[in-house]
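Hallway conversation turned thread

IA: we were arguing at lunch whether anyone had actually written out Pentacotripeptide-repeat region of PRORP domain-containing protein end to end. Turns out nobody had. So, for the record, here is the sequence (360 residues) and right after it the structure tokens. Reply here if something looks off.
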Amino acid sequence: MDAHEYSKGIKAAGRCKNIDLAIELFKEAENKGVKISSTYNALMAAFMYNGLADRCFSLFLDMKKDPTCTPNNVTYNIVISVFGRVMLIDHMEATFKEMRDLHLSPNISTYNYLIAGYISSWMWDDMEKVFQVLKSGPIEPNMKTYLLMIRGYAHCGNLEKMEEIYSLVRDHVNENEMSIIRVMICAYCKSSDADKVKKVKALLKLIPEKEYRPWLNVLLIKLYAQENMLEEMENAINEAFEHKTAITTSGIMKCIITAYFRCNAIENLENFIRQSVFAGWRICHSLFHCKLVMYGSHKNFREMQNVLDEMEDIDVNCNKRTLWIMYKAYSSTGQRSMILKILGKMFKHGYEIPDDAFPS
């Protein structure tokens, strides 16, 4: 094999995550005296592709010492990309400066790697500066640039610019870039955009059903819960149950509970809790406290007692807030015997007693 064939073999081995083979081919090329800059670049790229940043940079230093090979703009692009991926921005910028000092012309890949590095480090102003350099010429942004900028604007919450870039490459994104579609959905979910639900639904239609993502499913549950869209929320919840996606954070659970409370959907809440317990979701006191408040507001004391039994069945203890909710519910109807029982439990556990428990 000649030098270029060795380079192709090393690159292919790296893409297949076979680093040992890539190194073996590199050494073989070295022993045969056909090692050139592209051979170094291929192995550096293999290290980069497999997340071996230290070994990639070490090989770069070896290359700089090798009298037979000289780093070129491809070499520097790889190093810039590596530093950007591991968020060593000072090193990335120093490498770019070194490249310019050597009069190696940066190309569109160079600028894209710089933008990607700034996005990884959430350095939005620097990301924007590089993009403006490209827009002013002579190197023009390419599709990769636009996709990066959509991602960057989505992450920083600049929906206006995100939509502006999306409009330039809409057809390509809608057909080929589901990951970008999901990033945009995420940006809308976290925004205060008045039409965010409409825009999210439009984007969701572009994603094939087989491309299910648990994190996106949970994000949609939260969105619909915050918007009091009970039917959509429950559809998303059922989808999570079907895919065995378990919600383990109390924040999302409280969003769901609050939606049921605002919609006064006690039966729906009952059904949700049963399914959540069975599916291994995060079970918190708020689930049962919401039921207690809702039953209490309807003076349904029998069901309130059933809630306490449910809590006991799954080892959820009766805490201070539980007793306060019970106290308020019974106080509203003057059920003195039950009030005294609740107060007794408060005394027993050392909880604070309501100020109106014993009027003077």
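OS: looked through it. The CA atoms of residues 210 and 243 lie 11 Å apart.
IA: good, adding that to the notes. The mean pLDDT is 92.
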